């Protein structure tokens, strides 16, 4: 029997919110001139130009012995890392810049915007960008860069390692070599932010660290795009960018200090959760993300506290995979004032960044809900 009440919808059928709008301004005219100049220069060279931005991480770390794989410290510069990889002079021309040299747990907003500026400044002068980064928060930085920079067809590749450079089987040199080759390959164009790790090429928008120790630490369903094998880049699909990725124009001036993003905290749900935690956190934040149980469920008393807040509340999930649908959200008596949004496929960390960007742009609740709708939510 046909069910006439059943409606099948397409998630984010329009590309409107995943594109930057070209605006008529002096800045845009200058950018167009720079693109034209870069294109003219391209005609006189054959090898792609790759910019490497160093931030630190395990890939730039040293241990006390060749068997130590924990408790190491960041110590190597980009120049020292490049000395450990095969000769790539036949693959591309390289320039590098050391932005910082820290463990990725220490990546804060100041460093995040430093990476943002460095990528933005390199867009018109290079054919690809490689960013060395610690794996612990790599997914967050990659998501932020994907959401805030219009890099067109240019490949931006994040790379790290799970073992320090002094390990008897360090994975950093091969990962870096592969990342440079991937950024240099024309097949990498038009795919958005990429992550190169352990022979795997993944989407920076979807990638999540799933294992704290294994070399195969970025093993997720969404965003597995291809592999690197025997000096060959293999993609499974034609070039495309993440569907529903909302683009935010930050418009930072070079001379201005890094702006402070609105405060958004993540609350981790658990059995016998104290509902008063919601009130305590809400007093200090402009938005909140709840890593909820299952596919977005919480005890009713906690739901009631969430509905009573005056700030946006995003329901994400503790589980590494899966999604939070609208159907699992608590219902408000006054639907016009509901402050709760489903995160869709986004994990709590990425939901936090997306909500911060929405708040920074002073989006209304409905506009914010529409942004999260891109990855199924709202």
TrEMBL record:
Substrate binds at residues 104, 135-136. GO terms for biological process: L-asparagine catabolic process. The active site is at 58 (o-isoaspartyl threonine intermediate), 58, 135. Its EC number is 3.5.1.1. This is asparaginase. Residues 49-239 form the L-asparaginase N-terminal domain. Pfam families: Asparaginase (PF00710), Asparaginase_C (PF17763). Gene3D superfamilies: 3.40.50.40, L-asparaginase, N-terminal domain. Signal peptide: none annotated. It comes from Zygosaccharomyces mellis. It catalyses: L-asparagine + H2O = L-aspartate + NH4(+). Residues 264-372 form the Asparaginase/glutaminase C-terminal domain. The keyword Plastid does not apply. Transmembrane segments: none annotated. GO terms for molecular function: asparaginase activity. Belongs to the asparaginase 1 family. The lineage of its organism: Eukaryota, Fungi, Dikarya, Ascomycota, Saccharomycotina. CDD domains: L-asparaginase_II. PANTHER family: 60 KDA LYSOPHOSPHOLIPASE, L-ASPARAGINASE. Keywords: Hydrolase. InterPro entries: AsnASE_II, Asp/glu_Ase-like_sf, Asparaginase/glutaminase-like, Asparaginase/glutaminase_AS1, Asparaginase/glutaminase_AS2, Asparaginase_C, L-asparaginase_C, L-asparaginase_N.
